[in-house]
Design goal:
62% of the residues lie in helices and 12% in strands. The protein has helices spanning 3-15, 18-25, 32-41, 48-60, 83-107; strands spanning 30-31, 64-69, 76-81. Strand 2 and strand 3 (76-81) form a beta hairpin. Residues 23-89 form the Transcription regulator PadR N-terminal domain.
């Protein structure tokens, strides 16, 4: 398999799932760099210049809330999935499960 071809398709497949991953991870408060590490450990190779605009967009949409922790030497902005974000996450995860079932059935040659 051509590595560039595979890499491009894997990147495209994962691009839409980063929002799901962020909303899931941030059910517990987390800051940007920690989120980058958690995403990387889970197999989502997201760059900081992609993640931080995404976090700002999700916050603007009301899906995340944020607060500053100034107790450490370096202040950190912590994000948490809002109630609206949790509701959206639940709906997206249900759709994800439905899509997974449909793809599996198609792959096995069964109609959905």
């Amino acid at each position: 398999m051509d590595e560039d071809l595979l890499g491009g398709h894997l990147q495209e497949l994962r691009r839409g799932t980063v929002v799901l991953a962020c909303l899931s991870i941030l059910k517990r408060p987390g800051y940007g760099y920690g989120l980058l590490e958690a995403l990387g450990n889970a197999g989502f190779g997201v760059e900081a210049n992609t993640l931080y605009p995404l976090l700002r967009r999700l916050e603007k949409q009301g899906l995340l809330t944020s607060s500053w922790d100034t107790e450490e030497a370096r202040p950190r902005k912590f994000y948490t999935t809002s109630e609206q974000g949790r509701e959206l996450l639940d709906l997206l995860l249900k759709d994800w499960d439905d899509l997974h079932t449909s793809i599996r059935q198609l792959n096995e040659g069964r109609p959905s």
